[in-house]
Amino acid sequence: MPLVTSTKMFKDAYEGNYAIGAFNVNNMEIIQGVVAAAKAENAPLILQVSAGARKYANPIYLRKMVEAAVEESGLPICLHLDHGDTFELCKESIDLGFTSVMIDASHHSFAENIKITKNVVEYAHDKGVVVEAELGRLAGIEDAVNVSEKDSSYTDPDQVHEFVTKTGVDSLAIAIGTSHGAFKFKGEAKLRFDILVEVEKRLPRFPIVLHGASSVPQYLVEQINQYGGNMPGAKGVPEEMLRQASSMAVCKINIDSDIRMAVTATVRKYFADNPSHFDPRQYLGPARQAVEKIVRHKIVNVLGCNGKAFI
Ligand code: G3H
Ligand code: 13P
Ligand code: ZN
Hints:
Blueprint: H1 7-16, E1 20-24, H2 28-41, E2 45-49, H3 51-57, H4 59-73, E3 77-84, H5 87-95, E4 100-103, H6 110-126, E5 130-135, E6 139-141, E7 146-147, H7 157-167, E8 171-174, E9 179-180, H8 193-202, E10 208-210, H9 218-226, H10 239-246, E11 250-255, H11 257-273, H12 280-303
Parallel strand pairs: 1-2, 1-11, 2-3, 3-4, 4-5, 5-8, 6-9, 8-10, 10-11
Antiparallel strand pairs: 6-7
Helix pairs in contact: 2-4, 2-12, 3-4, 5-6, 7-8, 9-11, 11-12
The structure holds glyceraldehyde-3-phosphate, 1,3-dihydroxyacetonephosphate (13P) and zinc ion.
C-alpha cells in the first residue's frame, strides 16, 4: 500500500466518534516506536514532520523512513507537513511526496490567511494532496513554532464557515485552550468545549484538528526530574478532555511533547543506571520502546482508533 491521505481516516473517525493520532517524528527510533504501536493496535496513523524536523533530519530521510514503515507495517499511513508557514514550504513537501500538508497562516489577517490557504489548496488538490489550515492561534514555544500567550487567540466560530468555503480546505485546526509544549496550564486545565460545539454546528461533519494535545503524564515528569531534569510544573491536557474531543468533531489529535518526554525520561534513567555505557543502541533501543508504550496507550485509551486500520 502506498502512503495515503487522511480523507478516509477522517470520514471513518467522524462517523465512529474517535480520532486519529498525528505524531511528530524526528528520527528513526521515533518513527519505529510510533509505527510499532500502531501495528500492535491495528490503527491508522498520521506521521507529521515540522519545519524543525525537516531541518534536523532532512525531509528526504524522513520520507524514505516513513515509506519503509509503510512497507514493513502494511498500515494506512499519511505523511503530513506540520505547521507549514509558507506556500513554498507546502509546495516543496507536496513535490517530495507528502500526502497532506498544513498551511499555518494563522498569524496573518483573516483575509490573508484565506488567500494563502486557498493557493496551497489549489496546488495540493491538483496533486491529490489534502490540506489542513488553522484559525485562531495556540500559545506555546517549541523549536520553529513559537507564539507568546499575549499573541494567542481562541477561534471565532463565526469565521469558520466562510474560511472553509472560500479556501476549500480539507480540515481545520482550531484554538480552544490547548498550547504547544509541556507547560500548558498554570492552574486548572480548561478547554473551551463551547467553541468546539459552535464550530461543529457551523461545519457539520467537517474534520477538526486539535494541536497542543500532549497530556504530559506525571510519571514522565517525575522520572525526568528524578534523574537530573528540571520540569517542575509541567502540565498537559487531561486525557478525559481529549477523549471527549475525540467523540466530538475532532478527528486529528497532535502529539509531540509526550513523545519527547518519553525518550528523555528513558535516556536519563538509562545513563543514571548505566554510567559506563556508550553504545547509542543501548539507550536508543529502550527509548524506542518507551515511545511505543506511550503511543499504544494514546491509541487505545485516548484516541480510540485501535482496530480501525483499513486495507
Ligand atoms: O507544533 C509543533 C511541533 O511540536 C513541532 O515542534 O518545531 O520543535 O519540531 P518543533
Ligand atoms: P504538543 O506540544 O502538545 O505535543 O503538541 C504538538 C503539536 O501540536 C504539533 O503540531
Ligand atoms: Zn501544532
